[in-house]
Design goal:
about 325 residues, alpha+beta, Double-stranded beta-helix, 9-stranded mixed sheet, 3-stranded antiparallel sheet, 6 helices, about 20% helix
């Protein structure tokens, strides 16, 4: 059990203070200067705190883009978001400069970053440069706590289920022209729909978390669409539980590092057309590991009439000729 009191983690050159700011997720980290290189013990302490608290807040960090990238690389290689606004000289650095004439992207939906990838990122690091006078908060919710809120029967039912994820919200970025369709087709081949477990096991804590989100998840693999939608809608609504949320109010020069394996987040777009300038790096992750034996076949779907395409000797259709 984590103490409610301030916890101090010692390292050879830093003494890190980790103070919980939310009941189920979120902690403020002080005693570390992200402008300076970090020693191995400090990095290890931050890795553990990150996994344990799911969202880490570093106040008063006047850092450069290079500092931000260096900090991210302590936790793994930086990935390049294929559909974001990256810096011209550094594709791994995302720049969000939202203001009049450049509204914020559709990040006001609860989501986990880039689950359309075979290996979604392990974490995301966001640094505030210019913040609006009012608004612009980021909300987080613990999907570990969401899972733990479910009954034993529901937890058992979800074990072994898989869901299909796709980059569908970004497909609207491609124009409806022959050239746009060609580019979209190329990205669909590069990022085909991918399957992830509905319940993901955290590689550090061993805890289970719900790993579906309304932005990228299409359906539960192998299940009837109506039944799949009913289950996914139930899981999506868990993010609305106020007690498992942490709402972060930004100040200039703050760094927030969240665990993409166990949280969802949503940006509040109540500040436009005020300016909000943020920089972000994303740390590459690994293939999600699920729980239990993978469900398939008759356990997932019951047909009144067998599917037409399951018959080998059926008459061919025009597109198959």
């Amino acid at each position: 059990m984590i103490s409610e009191k301030e916890r101090t983690q010692s390292a050879s050159s830093n003494v890190i203070q980790v103070r919980r700011v939310g009941r189920f997720l979120g902690a403020e980290v002080t005693g570390v200067d992200l402008r300076q290189p970090l020693d191995a013990a400090t990095v290890e302490g931050l890795k553990q705190a990150h996994a344990e608290h799911e969202v880490l807040v570093f106040p008063n960090q006047t850092i450069s883009s290079e500092d931000l990238k260096r900090f991210g690389r302590y936790f793994g290689p930086l990935s390049v978001h294929p559909f974001s606004t990256s810096a011209a000289d550094a594709p791994e650095l995302i720049v969000y400069d939202n203001k009049e004439g450049n509204p914020p992207p559709p990040t006001d939906i609860w989501h986990t970053d880039e689950t359309f990838r075979e290996c979604p990122p392990m974490g995301t690091i966001l640094c505030s440069k210019i913040i609006p006078e009012i608004g612009g908060d980021t909300c987080f919710t613990s999907m570990t706590s969401a899972y733990e809120s479910l009954s034993d029967k529901m937890q058992s039912f979800l074990s072994g289920l898989e869901a299909v994820h796709d980059f569908i919200p970004f497909k609207g970025l491609f124009p409806h022209t022959p050239e746009g369709w060609k580019k979209l087709k190329a990205y669909e081949e590069k990022f085909p729909p991918v399957t992830h477990p509905v319940l993901r096991v955290h590689p550090i804590t061993g805890k289970k978390a719900i790993f579906v989100n309304p932005q990228f998840t299409l359906h539960i693999k192998g299940m009837d669409e109506t039944e799949s939608r009913m289950i996914l809608d139930r899981l999506y609504r868990l993010t609305a539980m106020l007690e498992i949320q942490y709402r972060h109010r930004w100040e200039p020069n703050m760094v927030v590092f969240w665990d993409n394996r166990s949280t969802q987040h949503a940006a509040v777009h109540d500040y436009y057309p005020q300016r909000r300038l943020m920089e972000r790096v994303t740390v590459a992750g690994d293939r999600p590991i699920g729980t239990g034996e993978t469900a398939q076949g008759d356990a997932l779907r019951r047909f009144k009439t067998p599917p037409l395409m399951s018959f080998k000797n059926r008459p061919l259709r025009q597109h198959e000729l």
